[in-house]
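Pasting as-is:
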Amino acid sequence: MSDTNRRAFLQATTAAAASVALLPGAMAAGDDTLRVGLVGCGDRGTGAAKQALRADPKVKLVAMCDAFMDRLDGSLGNLKKIEDIAGKIDVTPDRKFDGFDGYKKLLACGVDVVLLTTPPGFRPIHLKAAIDAGKHVFCEKPVAVDVAGAKSVMETAKLAKRKNVSLCSGYCYRYDLAKRETVKRIHDNAIGDISAMHITYLTGPIWHRGTDPKWTPMEYQMRNWYYYTWLSGDFIVEQHCHNFDKANWVFNGKMPVAATGVGGRQQRRDPKFGHIYDHFGVTLEYADGAKLFSFCRQMPGCDGSVNDHVIGTRGSAQLMAHTITQAGGKEWEFGSETKVKDMYQVEHDELFAGIRAGKLINDGENAAHSTLMAIMAREAAYTGKRLTWKQLMASNQNIAPAKYEWGEIETPPVPTPGVYKFV
């Protein structure tokens, strides 16, 4: 089957009656295998590829891309060791791409579904290119690191709807059955109106990949991307964004009107850790008087807590424990006897099932809003100023480097509240 005919066949599978094409006998009409390309071959990308290959019986990983070929080869080797998916991997040398523009070559090599799992600084660029090319997309969280990037994602989400392609985000808690049931009850007024929510992501430090005298400053930053805001968004955006997404979900898409915060780096002082913080504390305000209290930390030797406590006028809920306690004493807990499928797998299962059935997912706007909440919290702490949603959305903040190429790149200073400016 020619590429043109195969694409036409796969487009038919996303029409309203697409499931007919998957009935016995319809297979003879052509090859309905969904061809997957992976952009970003780190641990999360490797995991996403594994989940995609398990999500559908007729799917193949046919292309991979990473800034560094050694990362790509390591990921490919690990995937081939997994017995139940090894037969679904068909990545030939001519479909392995590296460098800053490798994603363009991947999009042009006949893939149908693209997994975007690079450092998030590249997400808006890669997402727009993939949707422009008419590909179905899974994109990891967060979807941007600055305001301009988040706005770009919102426009790309609209484009995905017009092009009739899927855009599934990596805000995976929305794909967890127990949390879906808990949030449904909150939305059904089980604890009354939401007056406050307290979210925490208190963990230890993460990886650092060292250095090499052969690396240019750009390569050092790319290999240690977590420690540079233009690549990661700082850890409040890269990691704590999950909690902001759950808050966005609980508040039913209602955005905060302002944020005030503090933050800094007490233990992460070595220059090798770039310029990001190691702790934040931020309060977000809503127009109706509700508050969102956010605390996150990455430090060794400290207690951990990853939780979401929802306080209503008639009770409270714990999202991570999947419990609701009403003021009158009545309690609900998601049954531990209920078997819940891994949320990382569910998001891919639903993405591929939607492609087959023509019930396409589009998480783009929610993902952009949740990311913007985290960016607003970061900027409030960086500046030491009360930052409003109106100010945020009036900004075209773009923290990307002037050019993407190997060589020299500056490390910005650690943001100093009262000195750092939000623009």
